[in-house]
Specification:
Number of helices: 15
Largest sheet: none
Strand content: under 5%
Number of strands: 0
Order of helices and strands: HHHHHHHHHHHHHHH
Shape: globular
Low-confidence stretches: 28-103, 368-378
Number of domains: 2
Length: 378
């Protein structure tokens, strides 16, 4: 037994039982992810030969094969230890086969690894794991487009930057809101290793949804390699404004309730016009990022349309998943009903409802149950 292995085993024994189980589970999950990564994607992600001579005039490499990755230009020996950030582009590991298109290595890892936080707490897979997957996917795409032509890569960079903004904002907001319960819960005994493994179907299902929401739209833009246009700019602007509305709504509501009390009805700021700006903003943002932007790229491309269609269908699946979470799982309608039960009958609430929009909502909230209740006094 080597010295390094003995040190590792000694360290594992010193860990608490729950921490040791978590480390083992995450290690197995990472190994599963790496097993899913196509070899072409791994090679392109790890190393890429540097071009010489007229490299500044050559177009960026968006689709590589193993022979291209390790080839030499004008007899120069390739550098096996120099990472070319262009190799992180979403189209690096593409081939003509549809299954390979849907499993590019770095983006599978970006969707799965953050979601593995659900092995610690199941709910984290749809909160911190969700935000983390969006953040990491955006970072990978942004890093992959750093060395491309500025004009041609601008839509790709802006699209990725929106995901980075959304993921970082969501994780920060969730931690700020739950930091007391999070820090307190660390001391509590949690699930066993066997119970954690039972969460894998949920984690993999969430990872698949996040992959469709983030990676597939990004891959479509990378395949299209669009230049800046009015249509692209408008679609990206709508997506960013939707995510910004959600962020401002969460921040403003937290600020008012911290100042005036948790039972305060917030009717100012963005709530003056939107009763649920966080849900409304996300619906606007995801509709633009997962549907409008990819559709515009498909309409403007002919050479890569066969590759784009499966990715567009996957993007639609991602959009449908988040719509189901917001509408089908009664998120918006449930919050509307909760507010009506709590504040219904007060002049302030009734006037606010008449001048504000609830946003997209599945079904209708029953008014009869709350018509005679009155308000809950602060």
């Amino acid at each position: 037994m080597t010295r390094r292995r003995r040190t590792t085993m000694r360290t594992m024994k010193l860990m608490p039982k729950n921490t040791r189980a978590l480390v083992v589970t995450i290690t197995i999950s990472i190994a599963m992810v790496m097993a899913m990564v196509p070899k072409t994607g791994v090679a392109a992600f790890a190393v890429n030969a540097q071009r010489t001579g007229t490299s500044s005039t050559l177009p960026p490499v968006y689709d590589s094969t193993p022979s291209e990755i390790f080839s030499t230009d004008k007899g120069r020996t390739p550098s096996l230890f120099t990472l070319d950030l262009r190799s992180l582009s979403t189209t690096t590991a593409l081939s003509a086969a549809v299954p390979v298109q849907l499993l590019p290595g770095p983006f599978v890892a970006a969707a799965v690894i953050p979601t593995c936080i659900g092995l610690w707490r199941t709910g984290f897979a749809v909160s911190f794991g969700y935000g983390g997957a969006m953040l990491v996917s955006g970072v990978v795409q942004l890093a992959g487009s750093l060395r491309g032509p500025s004009e041609a890569m601008l839509p790709l960079k802006l699209h990725a930057a929106i995901y980075v903004f959304y993921g970082a904002r969501l994780c920060g907001f969730l931690f700020h809101r739950q930091k007391k319960s999070l820090l307190g819960g660390m001391k509590r005994r949690d699930a066993t290793l066997a119970e954690r493994f039972k969460r894998l179907p949920i984690i993999l299902g969430c990872s698949g949804l996040y992959y469709c929401m983030a990676c597939c739209p990004m891959k479509i833009l990378a395949l299209d390699n669009p230049t800046t246009s009015v249509a692209n700019a408008a679609a990206l602007a709508i997506g960013f404004l939707g995510m910004l509305l959600a962020a401002v709504g969460d921040w403003y509501k937290s600020k008012i309730k911290a100042r005036d009390g948790v039972n305060t009805l917030v009717t100012s700021g963005p709530f003056r016009y939107f009763r649920h700006p966080n849900y409304t903003g996300e619906m606007i943002g995801w509709t633009s990022l997962c549907l409008l932007t990819p559709a515009l790229s498909c309409l403007g491309s002919s050479s890569n349309l066969r590759r784009m269609i499966p990715l567009l269908l996957s993007s639609i699946v991602g959009w449908a998943g988040i719509v189901f979470a917001v509408l089908g799982l009664d998120a918006t309608a449930g919050l509307e009903k909760k507010q009506r039960e709590k504040y219904g009958g007060t002049p302030e609430y009734e006037a606010w409802v008449k001048t504000s929009w609830s946003g997209p909502m599945a079904g209708k909230v029953d008014d009869d149950a709350t018509a005679n209740k009155g308000a809950v006094r602060n």
